[in-house]
Amino acid sequence: MATNNAQPAAAGANAKHGSNTNADNKRILKCATGLGFLKSRHGILDIVIFIVVIVILVCADMNSSADVHDADILYPMTDIEISATQTKGAVIAFAVFGLLLILVDSVLYISSWIYRLSAKFDLTFNIIMLVLAFVYLILGCCAAAWEKKMEDTLGKIGRAKHSGAAAGTSFLLFVAVILIAVNFILRLTKKAKEEDIAV
Length: 199
What we know:
By secondary structure, the protein is mostly helical. The chain is built from seven helices and no strands. The protein has a domain at 88-156. It is elongated.
C-alpha cells in the first residue's frame, strides 16, 4: 500500500514543481512541465513569441485592404513587383497559424499532456516551428517590399495612412524568426535530463 501511494505522490510532486519527467512512464522531456514551464526559458520564449506575433497581426492590419489594393493598382509608379495584397494576406494567415502552434505548445507542457505523446512528436513539432521561422523570414522580406510599394504609390500622392506599418511588420517578423529559432534549436540540441523547476 505504501508503494502504491508513493507513485501518485511522486507524480503530483513532479507536476507541482515543473518536472520534465513523468513518474508513470519515465519519459524524460527537454522542457519542464506544469507551471514550471512558464518560468523556464522555453516557456518565457513562448510568451514573448506570442506577444510579438500578436503585434505583427496588429501592424499588418493597420493598412486597410482598400489602400493595399490601391497600391497594387498603381504598380506603374513603382518597381516593386510583389503584391501588397497577397503579402498582407500571407502575413496574417501565417501569424494566426503561428499563434495556434505556440498555444498548442504551451498548453501541452503546462497541462502535462505532452507525456501522452511520443518523442517523435517533439521532433516533428520542433521542425515545423523552424520551418515556420523560415517562412517568417521570407515574409519579413516581402513586408519590407510591401512598405516600399506603399511609399512609392500612395505615399507619392499623399494618400498614405499609417506610414511605416508594413515596415514595423517586417521588423517584428525578423524578431519572431530569431526568437523561434533560438527556442526550438535549443530544444533540438539540448540533452534531455531530469531537473525540477520550482514554481
